[in-house]
Specification:
- The chain is an alpha+beta fold.
- The chain contains eleven helices and 15 strands.
- Among the domains are: 185 residues, no CATH class; 68 residues, no CATH class.
- A hairpin with a 3-residue loop joins strand 12 and strand 13.
Length: 379
């Protein structure tokens, strides 16, 4: 069957709009058909070997976080749709655009969340016979990185059709896009995150361990990223309480950065399993349970740890016993502003208490320098 004899070589057309200009997210069927003819001419001029392949184009503009997801679902969907079209019905090209406001498959629908990014990417695939794929792939890697600017006709058509001005329009292989994203993440001190993401994209069957810039342990395994518990990290630190609290706030801030990007790339984030505590993740927060409710203590209380500029960085569930001693039962970490409400609701329901959050406006540590709760109640 054709689907078994064609190898898919992923490519993108990268658009860099003039600052402040945002293109619409999709092209109609007719527009996509016009564009694919222009793209085919460009690619033939750059790499004549493309004539041996079928060009498939999706008339949709994505952010790189939407394309670089485990399994590369946008390209996988494009390839599947292209293979379904009988070759006899085509002149070696096929394009998919929107109809009645919708693309032909959900993975080809760009999200408005990322519509204002500085670079918009239009995905394509070259479906080549297996015996020609290696040579074509090599030529794409060589030619596109060196002279992959789109032709004048293509660039003019895009500006007229999208109604925007463009700084650059160029072709990239998927490897080029991966390399570009790696550089971007390294530039903002997120090289450890890229190590995890690269593993998830290219070698999902292998584990990858790394450490964040601030020293939080991270590991990719079985389709998810496992993060060291911030409270576990805190327990291993030295210094006075002020320095430890400041470091803890920094770790949670960093974890929030990682969580946002991992979510954009559709890579789940969880706490590392620990035999001494139960962990879970949901609705933009992480939760670890340290101990069961002690019948002889007061009812559990929800306590907020706060840091300047970050708001609530953690929520501790604590019980007070004789002498006001506070015993931590669980710690929760809201990774998104909207996650605090669901976190409190879950804790209140689990412990059978009101979702009332007590706060002292700071991060509270116990006598051993661990994340804790005040010895006396806050009002």
């Amino acid at each position: 069957m054709e689907a078994q004899t064609l190898s898919a070589l992923p490519v993108v057309l990268a658009l860099e709009p003039v600052a402040g200009e945002t293109p619409r997210m999709t092209l109609s069927r007719d527009e996509a058909a016009e564009l694919v003819a222009l793209v085919a001419a460009d690619l033939h001029a750059l790499v004549p070997q493309v004539d041996a392949a079928r060009l498939a184009l999706a008339g949709a503009l994505f952010d790189q976080v939407e394309l670089l997801r485990p399994g590369f679902p946008v390209w996988a969907t494009l390839d599947e749709l292209a293979r379904r079209v009988p070759r006899a019905h085509l002149e070696n090209v096929v394009a998919f655009g929107s109809h009645d406001g919708h693309m032909p498959a959900q993975p080809l629908e760009p999200s408005p969340t990322y519509a204002e990014g500085p670079m918009r990417l239009l995905p394509m695939s070259l479906l080549a016979p297996a015996e020609r794929a290696e040579e074509l792939s090599e030529q794409l890697e060589i030619q596109l990185v060196g002279r992959g600017e789109a032709g004048t006709r293509t660039a003019d058509w895009l500006m007229r059709t999208l109604g925007i001005r463009l700084e650059h329009v160029r072709y990239l292989s998927r490897n080029d896009l991966l390399a570009l994203t790696c550089v971007q993440y390294e530039h903002v001190n997120l090289a450890p995150l890229w190590a995890l993401l690269e593993a998830a994209l290219l070698t999902p069957y292998r584990e990858e361990a790394t450490m964040s810039t601030r020293g939080l342990g991270l590991r990719y395994a079985e389709g998810k990223v496992l993060a060291q518990s911030p409270s576990h990290w805190l327990a291993a630190q030295t210094g006075d309480d002020t320095a430890r609290a400041h470091g803890f706030a920094g770790i949670v801030f960093e974890l929030r950065q990682y969580a946002a990007l991992l979510d954009a790339h559709r890579l789940p984030l969880q706490l590392q399993p620990d035999p001494a505590r139960q962990t879970s993740a949901a609705d933009g927060y992480l939760l670890e349970t340290l101990a069961a409710v002690e019948p002889g203590f007061d009812a559990p209380t929800l306590f907020a740890h706060e840091a300047p500029g970050l708001g609530v960085v953690a929520v501790t569930v604590a019980q007070r016993g004789d002498g006001g001693h506070a015993r931590a039962l669980a710690h929760g970490y809201p990774l998104q502003p909207q996650a605090l409400g669901p976190l409190l609701a879950r804790l209140a329901d689990h412990y059978g208490i009101a979702a009332e959050l007590h706060a002292a406006g700071r991060i509270v540590l116990d006598g051993d320098g661990r994340l804790g709760a005040p010895a006396t109640a806050l009002h």
